[in-house]
Amino acid sequence: MSEALVTDTSASNSKRRSAKKTSKSSGPGFFARIAIFLRQVIGEMKKVVTPTRKELINMTAVVLVFVVIVMAIVTVLDLGFGKAVLWVFGGNVGGEQ
Q1: Quick count: other Cβ atoms within 10 Å of Cβ 54?
Q2: Contact 86/93 with Cβ under 8 angstroms?
Q3: pLDDT, tens digit, for every residue of 2-17?
């Protein structure tokens, strides 16, 4: 009984492999896929809306403020962790030995 199961499984696997090979070759060719990709890129580029000057200034200001806030947070964390490491490992700040 187990031999029939193995035979059925191997037969179904070979059918799947042959089906994959035939479906791959029936698709569009290499240059056709490139042409489809370029058409899709052009279609997406037509959907792009250029922001007005006011919107651009507003978005730039938001990004700059966000970057400054993140820089401040990272600076505070860096200084805090640095002090904590020196406290834990007892580093000599004055350079005395």
Answers
A1: 8
A2: yes
A3: 555 555 555 555 555 5
CB contact at 8 A, 73 and 66: no
* pTM exceeding the 0.90 threshold for the entire prediction: no
**Residue 86 corresponds to which amino acid?**
L
Residue type present at position 88: V
Only one residue has tokens 């990004």, namely: 63
Q: Look up residue 90 and give its DSSP letter.
A: T
- Please report which helix (H) or strand (E) contains residue 20, including its range: helix 2-25
Q: Which residues contact 96 (CB under 8 A, 6 or more apart)?
A: none
Distance, CA of 26 to CA of 88 (rounded, Å): 67
